[in-house]
User: Fold this.
Amino acid sequence: MGKANPTQVPQGCGGRATLHAHPFHSRRSMSQSTPVEPQAPLNWAPTLVFLLTFIAAVTLVPYWGLTHGFSVGAWVFCIIFTGANGMAITGGYHRLWAHKSYDAHWSVRLLYMIFGTMALQNSVFCWASNHRAHHLYVDDIDRDPYSAKRGFWFSHIGWMLREYPSGITDFSNIPDLRRDPMLQFQHRFYVPLALITNFGFPLLAGWLVGDLWGTFILAGILRLVWAHHVTFFINSLAHMWGSRPYTDENTARDNPVLAVITYGEGYHNYHHIFAHDYRNGVRWWQWDPTKWLIAGLQLVGLTSRLKRTPDFQIQRALLAMQFKRAQEKLAKLPSAGQSQIELVRQRIAHEYESFHAAIAEWARVKEQWLEEKARAVIQHWEHTSFQEQLREIERRLHLQRRRLRVLHAQLA
Assistant:
């Protein structure tokens, strides 16, 4: 592929329904009240791929297992390919390319590209373009390509089965990716690459272990269906099932159950407010193998420039939601006449004032530190002093969150 003309839309994502994040259109100014087109043209290629692979998985897997059995090697390659596909989507397509949350060595990017292609979720151009549109227009029923407000079926798979206006191709939001020669190559030769990886890799693995068709059924068909629907759950279930500890301004949820099967992507409420953090499970104990892979590769020099959301911003988001929910609970209680409620109301008001004071103090210290740093006159001891002041404010916010949990319990 030649150098992309920034004023020209590149080749579209034909047959886009075989992939997770399909093309998105130049988003016209549309009202949320615009009716959804009920008779969008059927997208035959992805419809057939999803239907035939699903039928093959639910029939061939039990049939072959009962009549021939599967070798250990077939199961091993199924697990290996499934994990490689999943991590290529979460670590590569999603956190590296769609959100630019870290940089990776060319060898890591090559593996992401190969196994991401094998996951059959379209080229990086298509996937990342749609995903960036999803974040920009989240929950907009006309402009979010897989808006959860259009229902489970639509956000899970329905948006790929028809040519909805919200899925029309436009790569104007991925100028950075269009300059990448590796991604240009993948996009140009996506179909042959997808065929080679989805037929060639499983058949080669089956030949190596002496179980050609058993390995193809497990590591080819079953692996593909599982990889598809696990990814699709992030668009559907992760916007419907779980908690919203960081923001309620969109439908994204944190769900530790989904995190287990989606390589850490289940902490979706955090991700939608801090999209450029390379972590989704921000706490050390939260299951997020993708963040562990990225951090581990940094130790051997294969990833760098990992972006992390400052702890203060995380605590601020958590506290803001706690205050909002406390106010909602108080609004449902009698306005006066109960001394215990009045006491809790006063304490929450006091905590809210302290919260805003801490935010103002943090902003002041941060601004002063940046000004001194910009002048290049800051000394090491001054740098340490500023850092200690910021950490102290963050510690106070941690303690305030604990106090608010106690107040929430009293309201309950």
Remarks:
- The longest helix spans residues 339-374.
